[in-house]
Amino acid sequence: MGTEPVVMDLLRFATVGSVDDGKSTLIGRLLVDTRQLFDDQLEAVAHASVSRGVGDLDLSFVTDGLRAEREQGITIDVAYRYAATPTRKFIIADCPGHVQYTRNMATGASTADLALVVVDATAGLKEQTRRHLCIAALLGVRRVVVAANKMDLAEWAKDPYDALVAQVGALAAQLSIDEPLVVPVSALHGDYVVEPSEAAPWYDGPTVLGALEAAPAGGWAGEGLVGARLPVQWVLRHPTGKRTYAGMVDGAALRPGDAVFVLPAGIETTVRRVSTADGDLPEAPVGRCVDVDLADDTPAGRGDLLATAPLPQVVDQLTATVCWFGEEPLTAGQRFRVKHTTRTTVGFVDHVVKRLDVNHLALEDADALEANDIGVITLTTADPLVVDAYTSNRITGSFVLVDERTNATLAGAMVGAPSFAAELPR
Amino acid sequence: MTTPSAPPSSDASARVDHLDLLESHAVFIIREVAAECERPVLLFSGGKDSAVLLHLAVKAFAPALLPFPVMHVDTGHNFAEVLAYRDHQAAAAGARLVVASVQASIDAGRVMDPGEGSSRNRIQSTTLLDAINEHRFDAAFGGARRDEDKARAKERVLSFRDRFGRWDPRRQRPELWQLYQGKVNPGEHLRAFPLSDWTELDIWQYIERERIELPAIYFAHEREVVLRDGMLLAVSQWVTPTGDEVAERRMVRYRTVGDATCTGAVLSEATTVAAIIEEIATATISERGATRGDDRFSETAMEDRKREGYF
Ligand SMILES: Nc1nc2c(ncn2[C@@H]2O[C@H](COP(=O)(O)OP(=O)(O)O)[C@@H](O)[C@H]2O)c(=O)[nH]1
Q: Residue A258's closest CA among A314, A307, A311?
């Protein structure tokens, strides 16, 4: 459509790092060196740096957030930042380290295609970073780029870099994620962040930006095969009296002529047309919102799922991995509102089965989860849910538990139990 | 599973244009809110972000009509072109237009008039909250973007407001995946920001692609302006030169549209969207820094106003 000269794609990534390893400085550097900041914003950073006595231009102030955080010098919530190169737009979920890290990490990772992990190479991989990576892996982030930071302090020696590569590789194997690319950098001076450098002649890989630009975009891809999934959001009534079903495509592209099932009812029909307000599409790719016209006037409504083979499961009892955010412990017998795709029902927790020991990547028996714990529960719902395993599809594999009285979101949940932790030694 | 990360993207057909994805995401959010909330409203200022928002909302429900009204909080300090544009756009969308008037709040004694020629930006929060209560709106769509400000960068797409209309940054609902949770109790409401992930450049690229109509003041035109506090303000019934200020005729355009007493113009020759995109690509001053006097007073100006119920 139209004459747009730009063809940019989109990559969403989350940033992770222990306090003081240099994450704020690195993001600041990334934004400044790709010229995302305007002069007045840079001036504000310089002004804040000087007035707080930390030098001329402390890049970490670029990403400085809310008043409470500035006063306490900590970061309490996920912040979103944006950067673009001529061919790619980046949406960055900047996940803070300490307080409520599970909640923040899970939120940031839930929409990320990739994690950028900042590690102080002179200190090695810290416990907190391991925990963050574990949560990112649980949330399905399998691609990781590691910035081995403060290489200037290590005088660009190869040993600490090699040691970190080995540590990170071992952890990645445990977490069953792809082997991370490790880039030696100085966030402070800018080497290998956006600008190439001569500082590490022994390194011939890409810069951090180069790695982010080369990573496959086009959304999150799960393990195994799933068909197209379209949770119906809204029934569009046309002046002709016809009804079409609106929603976002996930899993695989949806095309006219595809055999689809309306679930949970289980009615089989055919996709007659796929369109947007701009007209018909030959194919609706993952991530596009479309209207679907079904053959045979098949009825459907909000909360139904249109799916092509291989089909999801219709369940009213399931096992799920939950990240618990509530202040009161999660225990058996509690009742919640359950929001899964565009479908809302209620559910009871039958059992709290396991709690994840994030430090040791081990599942231990438990009967309650405290705030920011991750664990495994079984749940029975009042109405059936149409699900895939989270590892195959993030959209049909995830749901939230909501407090029926206050409407607070108390847990993020993923269909299935974590695969990596169980078999690991303590 | 030990292939190194980040191999070059080989499958060119997998490239989905960022504007298509941003559009789809926004449409998704708009439909979720319309489905989950009982009485949503779309806040429409006549600015470019709200123009994009309205365009997306119309697309989200086409060929049916917009299932919610459009509301303008009128400070009484508007550019005439923007009011005409507002009326025309709402009519074209087939939407019911609700106007909430700051002057009416002043006349009713709800807020103090900050005085002739002073910005009414801060006091419009009261007018907005009163209107939300009066109409029992439980969700208000806004065109705010996270790239605009430090406080916005941390705000949820669906941002919860308590019965006093306040935003509490420490008590935001976790927002995972695409599970936008729109339920509120009576008296509470949500602000919904479907353009959260858009940047100024995305907005302009989308305006160009979709040929969205904008108020004329966004394009370069000759206007009588006066330089005040480093900003070019239009000479109007509210702004007249004082002291040694001199009014000059310059070629200017606006990057944002707000209260005429505190919205600055930028010098520009750009008379088309394409020319504006080119100017933005090389601009050195941020949109708010250049043109919004209300954000320049303190490092936390926006956060403070948001806590009070601002847009
Ligand atoms: N020498 C050196 N210092 C760095 C580098 N990156 C960050 N720092 C310093 O490390 C400290 C912590 O950095 P910051 O970005 O605030 O860490 P964060 O807590 O991970 O966000 C600051 O004093 C930075 O100036 C680097 O590459 N080299």
A: A307
pLDDT recorded at residue A61: 65
Cβ-defined contact of A64 to B150 (cutoff 8 Å)? yes
Which residue, chain included where needed, has tokens 């007073």?
B297
* Window from A39-53, B8-22, B34-48 with minimum mean pLDDT: B8-22
Name the residue facing B24 among A65, A106, A248 (closest C-beta).
Answer: A248
- Distance in Å, CA B48 to ligand 1 centroid: 38
Q: pLDDT of A304-347, one tens digit each?
A: 999 999 999 999 999 999 999 999 999 999 999 999 999 999 99
How far is B307 from B310, CA to CA, in rounded Å? Answer: 7
Which ligand 1 atom sits nearest the alpha carbon of residue A189? 27
Name the residue among A423, A412, A414, A421 with its Cα closest to residue A391.
A414
**Is A212 in contact with B23 (Cβ distance < 8 A)?**
no
ipTM of the complex: 0.90
Tokens standing for B59?
Answer: 């697309």
Distance (Å) from the alpha carbon of B216 to chain A's nearest alpha carbon: 22
Those residues with Cβ within 8 angstroms of residue B104's Cβ, 6 or more apart along the chain or in another chain:
B127
Lowest-confidence region among A374-383, B67-76, B103-112:
B103-112
- Which candidate in A8, A289, A391 is best for mutational testing of the B interface (most B CBs within 10 A)? A289
End-to-end CA distance of chain B: 47
Give CA–CA dist B290/B271, Å, rounded: 19
How does A177-206 read in b/e, with b if 16+ C-beta sit within 10 Å? bbbbbbbbbbbbebbbbbeebebbeebeeb
Measured between beta carbons, the chain A residues lying within 8 angstroms of B9 are 214-218
Q: Do A234 and B154 touch (CB under 8 A)?
A: no
Report how far apart, in Å, the C-alpha atoms of B151 and of each of A67, A135, A414, B145, B194 are.
8, 26, 30, 11, 17
- DSSP 8-state secondary structure symbol assigned to residue A43: H
Q: By alpha-carbon position, which residue is closest to atom 8 of ligand 1?
A: A22
Contact (CB, 8 A) for B219 and B250: no
Ligand 1 centroid–CA A204 distance in Å is 24
Residue A420 has a pLDDT of: 61
How far, in Å, CA of B86 to CA of B89, rounded?
5
Distance B223 CA to ligand 1 centre (A): 48
Q: Which residue has the tokens 């002649």?
A: A201
What is the spatial distance between Cα B137 and Cα B129, in angstroms, rounded to a whole number? 10
Size of interface A-B (CB pairs under 8 A): 230
Note the residue count of chain A: 426
Minimal-distance CA residue of chain B relative to A143: B5
| Residues of chain B positioned with their CB less than 8 A from the CB of A48 | 299
Percent helix, strand, coil in chain B, to 5, is 35, 15, 50
